[in-house]
Amino acid sequence: MTAAMRQVRPLLTEKNCMTAVLERIESRPRQPHLHRILGIVAVYLVVGYGASLIKAIESPNKDDDTQWLTYWVVYGIFSIAEFFSDIFLSWFPFYYMLKCGFLLWCMAPSPSNGAEFLYNRIIRPFFLKHEAQLDSVVQDLKDKAAETADTITKEGEQKAIPWSQKAGGISLGSSYYCT
What we know:
It comes from Malurus cyaneus samueli. The chain is mainly α. The protein contains 8 helices and no strands. The protein has a domain at 1-59.
């Protein structure tokens, strides 16, 4: 972390148009440049990449769609792993900063895009190796979900028939309430 800070500090202290803008912003409340940069990154994460997703969907070019689908696959796997390990990871200093950096690396529109790297090196080979097993599990889950939906529907119908018989066959539809 200190090596990265040594590289960033000169950029924050030398005179250029960016530091002039940051100094102007900083002159109001006293906060270091780093907080401002983190705020700009946070706004980009919330607003900027949401707009780029919409642009990717609306564009005729499908390469950007593939980039964002790759990102969301990596993000989904990361979220699942984080769900089970968050209680331990949150105790590490700078975990949330590292997580933010990781997500920026994954969505960066550069040749060293993290999502494409992780997908091509880890996720895709794993998926191709276990594709038949994953398909089998997904099909079993679909079958069980359909079976459960059928069971619930049948139970609902069985409970609804005696109730309508107790009501004497009188329909209490919308005409009953609208008169």
